[in-house]
Amino acid sequence: MAKLQKLSGNENEIESIESSTSTYSGKRTDYLQWDDYFMATAILSSKRSKDPSTQVGACVVDNHNRIVAIGYNGFPRNCSDDEFPWSKGPDKKSLENKNMYVVHAEANAILNSNGTRLDGTRLYTTLFPCNECTKLIIQSGIREIYYLSDKYGDKLIYRAARRMLDAVGIGYRQFIPTQKQIMINLDETN
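RE: above sequence
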């Protein structure tokens, strides 16, 4: 057993702490794993979406574990979210259908990369990408996709997405978190 010393509440008092040198390193053990961190970033980004039914976030990461882009689903720049519709409406081809205007999170992340080359990067997204986003993913050079939900997986556009990803060898898998809950308490940082 090694004896460590630390200051107690009173600056002039020193406490002795016994600790095994083989087990005490001083490092936190409850830190976020990389994959949990990147998916949490995608989830946090999804909180920016004003879509009342589906909030999606995406995070693109390079091979050095650096975040190079993030995005969420919403209207294009300068298109007022008070003037354009947020509902799907009964007619998919109606000008009152949000899908005529919304930019998906994956597309926004790619567009937000500020010219950074995305070759060989990984995409973390809260929802499996549609066929249109998959085209952009392929063209941008992203090589792996980690998704949280696949709630629309049986729809044709998502089946088409898988077909394209399989054809070009881009890996995708459902993300299983190692931590089920990550709390952000802004009061704790002060």
